[in-house]
Amino acid sequence: MALTISNEDRRISGDRVVIDAKIAFDDNYPTGGEALAASDFQGLIQIDSLIVHSANLAMYRVIWDDTNSKLKVFLEASGGDGAEDEVGNTDDINTLRCLVHVIGK
Q1: Contact at 8 Å (CB) between 73 and 15?
Q2: CA separation for the pair 95, 105 (Å, rounded)
Q3: Are 49 and 103 in contact (CB under 8 A)?
Q4: 105 neighbors 37 (Cβ within 8 angstroms)
Q5: How many other C-beta atoms are found inside a 10 Å radius of the C-beta of residue 56?
Q6: How many CA atoms lie within 13 A of 32 on its CB side?
Q7: Parallel, antiparallel, or unpaired for β 16-24 and 97-104?
Q8: Contact 34, 96 (CB under 8 A)
Q9: DSSP 89
Q10: Which whole-number Å values give the CA distances from 91 to 18, 44, 66, in the listed order?
Q11: pTM of the entire structure?
Q12: What is the Cα Rg of the chain in Å?
């Protein structure tokens, strides 16, 4: 199933499209992150910038891997030392939602 994108708010800024959207994860996270392409957003052909604004669960951190076009999810490691581990392969994170701000063409 992969990622589900909803609530896209689109506007034009100069020669770029700015999109704010909600992204939901599924029950089968792949090691290395979930692929996210420009074409996953309505009418977008290129992602210039993607910023993850927030996640609904405080123990998770979602980052944009621009080089590989993936959203990667990290979980606070046990021990309280601030270390984080990537969510495990096939882990169920279907309750995780994040807000993203995308700029592209």
Answers
A1: no
A2: 30
A3: yes
A4: no
A5: 12
A6: 5
A7: antiparallel
A8: no
A9: T
A10: 31, 29, 23
A11: 0.87
A12: 14
* Residue 20 token pair: 């704010």
Nearest to 101 by CA among 35, 54, 37: 54
pLDDT tens digit sequence for 31-68: 999 999 999 999 899 999 999 987 777 788 999 999 99
Q: Give CA angle at 55 (53, 58), nearest 5°.
A: 125
SS3 14: coil
CB 50 within 8 A of CB 17: no
Tokens of 48: 């210039």
DSSP tag of 40:
G
Q: Which amino acid is at 50?
A: L
Single-letter amino acid code for the residue at 81: D
Could you read off the pLDDT of 83-103 as tens digits, one per residue? 788 999 999 999 999 999 999
Q: Is the dihedral of CA 75, 28, 71, 68 positive or negative?
A: positive
Question: Quick one: tokens of 43?
Answer: 């009418």
Where do we find the tokens 């927030």? 54
